[in-house]
Amino acid sequence: MTAQTSAQESRQVSEQASETTWHVVGLDHDLKPGCVLPGFTARTEMAIWRDNTSQVHAFDVRCPHRGMRLSQGFVRNNNLACPYHGWQYGSDGHCAFIPAHPDLPPSRSIRAGVYPCVERYGLIWSSDEPLNASNTTQSPNLQVEPPELESIDENALLAIRSYVVDRPCNTIRDALLLSNNDFPIAAVTSIHPGVIALSASDLDNAEFVVALQTMGHSKTGLHLLANTTSTVDKKLAARWGARLRNQLEGTLTSHTGEQH
Amino acid sequence: MAKTTDTVALNDWHAIGCQTDASVDKPLETKLLGQRIRAQRDHDGALTVIEINDDSTAGRTLRVQENYGHIWACLGTPARELFDMPEYNEAGRRQVLCGTVRVKASPLRIVENFLDLGHFPYVHPGVLGQEPQTQVYPYQATIREDVDEVWATDCRFYQQQAAMSASDGQETQYMYRVPAPYVTMLYKTCPQQVDAWDVIGLFAQPLEEDLCDVHTFMWLIDETSTMAQLIQFQQMIFLQDRNILENQMPKCMPLNPRAEAGVQADIMSATYRRWLRKKNLQYGAIAHR
After folding, report:
1. Mutation for A interface: B247, B252, B269, B273, most A CBs within 10 A
2. DSSP character at residue A14
3. Per-residue pLDDT tens for B88-99?
4. B100 has a pLDDT exceeding 50
5. B277: confidence class by pLDDT, cuts 50, 70, 90
6. Is A215 helix (H, G, I), strand (E, B) or coil?
7. How far apart are CA A126 and CA B157, in angstroms?
8. Buried b (16+ CB within 10 A) or exposed e, B190-211
9. Separation in Å, CA of B259 to nearest CA in chain A
10. Which of B112, B249, B256 to mutate to test the interface with A (most CBs of A within 10 A)?
């Protein structure tokens, strides 16, 4: 590699990094090696999967062959396999195996869309901006800067549970941040566009991190993590999260401004 | 949704239900190509199919005929006769209507899935296929200009239980036929009689572009299985397909040959899509401009 191309590549990497907008798509402990989960952002539906070496990957949900949802697929030979015809895609998105023609290497042109995907703070993060087809063997996820949560100690976080709230994401975020005693929360701080730190005023002021995930226009994934610097029982915390979800749904209108 | 403006679809015959679905006492209320319709018999058994207007008043009367155990209607002026399927009346065959299944999918995706060998080991494992016997061997697929139909021949696949009457795994021979855009059938090795073919097929009735009632049938050579067993076997297979069909994106089938990847095993699908482009069939498709 020449110095010039190296410089070009690092500039491309930094440009991409500066543009990466991270969205939470799940709790990392919910995705075991060799498993697949559906992933949603405001604009994209994904298949989130973990390979046998514990690396996480986010693929566009459509299989390039017949448009089948890869989120219903399975991991085989450390590749993501489509449930329709068993076509396998490697971590770079390129098709690695077509069972109908087991002796023929698949065309390089057959490739699943790949999005950045990293794990940090007990959360799986992805972005709506697909990664370009790469000719390097480097994991595409190393091309991007991971998300940073200021003032959060990654080692002090304990994943509690994920909830689906049947209300739009911005409604929930605004409600939590502007909570006028509607909810049993205090010390509410926005630390990232989708992440809020708060304490539970009805649970010994236990400290939590709440990560919000836009799921289409009407639903929100609410991912609850406890800050272990305050003592909290995991079961009680999970129940507290369920109460918060019920209170959010009970208080907030479901009007979404959907156009139909 | 309003009735389509796709004249190719409007001027073709479409199944709208089984013959027994409409009686004197109970009319059949359904939809076809976005248009609400009602089929009703008089006391002599004669059948009338009418459009139902948006205000629920009775609209114009449609052309109708009964054949192959089903009611067929045309919303426009039929461009051709209903296709011929001589096996329906062949001596020695059992006529098995396997029921109607509603599927949230395009009729074209439903037909294409029926024409597909490669999905057997993944969607119907242990029955119509099984890993590692996943290979799709070369076969022929053509548009037969003389009859304006798509045919595929010389197809074969190793199957664990090719039919209700199969006792062992066998390499099953197949032929496929598409006589109309929303109709398909196959001829496959009959486990009980050498040199005979079982006939299995479906009539997709598009209610909307992405919503169908699928009427499935078998004209079988099987003296032993009960009717319930035969129907249950076919319904099990089709419900496995339905989960796939309802999860394909986009819902309508892209006719642009570059929109979805294909391999040699998919030449049947590629031929079907080419035939649809040539016909300029649009309902259920994303047109290739």
Report:
1. B247
2. H
3. 999 999 999 999
4. yes
5. very high
6. strand
7. 41
8. bbbeeeebbbbbbbbbbbbbbb
9. 8
10. B249
- Are B289 and B255 spatial neighbours (Cβ–Cβ below 8 Å)? no
3 state DSSP class of B46: coil
Rounded Cα distance between B86 and B89, Å, is 6
CB contact (8 A) between residue A110 and residue B260: no
Residues of chain B neighbouring A101 (CB-CB closer than 8 A): 135-136, 263-265
pLDDT in tens, B183-214: 999 999 887 788 889 999 999 999 999 999 99
Query: What pLDDT, in 10s, does the model give residues B221-248?
Result: 988 899 999 999 999 999 999 999 999 9
Does A86 sit within 8 Å of B134, measured CB to CB? yes
Degrees to nearest 5, angle at CA A60 with A55 and A61: 105
Q: Provide CB contacts within 8 A for A193, sequence distance 6+.
A: A21
Instruction: Give, as one character, the DSSP assignment of residue B258.
Output: T
Helices first, then strands: H and E counts in chain B: 5, 15
Q: Are B15 and B215 in contact (CB under 8 A)?
A: yes
Contact between B249 and A107 using a beta-carbon 8 Å cutoff: no
- Provide φ and ψ at A15, rounded to 5°: -65, -45
How would residue B168 be classed by pLDDT, with cut points 50, 70 and 90? confident
The two most distant CA atoms of chain A are separated, in Å, by 65
Residues of B in contact with A74 (CB under 8 A): none
Q: What are phi and psi of B92, to 5 degrees?
A: 90, -5
Query: Which residues lie below 8 Å from residue A144, measured CB to CB, with a gap of 6+?
Result: A13, A16, A17, A20, A116, A118, A127, A131
Which tokens sit at B38? 């009602």
Chain A hits for B263, Cβ within 8 Å: 98, 100-101, 104, 106
List, in order, residues 6 or more apart from A129 with CB less than 8 Å away: A16, A19, A20, A21, A115, A116
Query: What number of H helices and E strands is found in chain A?
Result: 3, 16
Angle at A64 between CA A63 and CA A69, to 5 degrees: 15
Q: CA of A36 to nearest chain B CA: how many angstroms apart?
A: 16
Query: Measured between beta carbons, which residues in chain B are less than 8 angstroms from residue A100?
Result: 117-118, 134-136, 263-265
Q: Which of B111, B119, B243 to substitute to test the interface with A, most A CBs within 10 Å?
A: B119
What gap in Å lies between CA B88 and CA B94, rounded to an integer? 9
Residues 6+ apart with CB under 8 A from A1: none
Residue B80 scores a pLDDT above 80: yes
Residues of chain A with pLDDT under 70: 1-19, 134-143, 255-260
Secondary structure (3-state) at B85: coil
Q: Is A8 exposed, middle or buried (0-12, 13-18, 19+ CB in 10 A)?
A: exposed
> Global pTM?
0.92
CB contact under 8 A, B260 and A65: yes
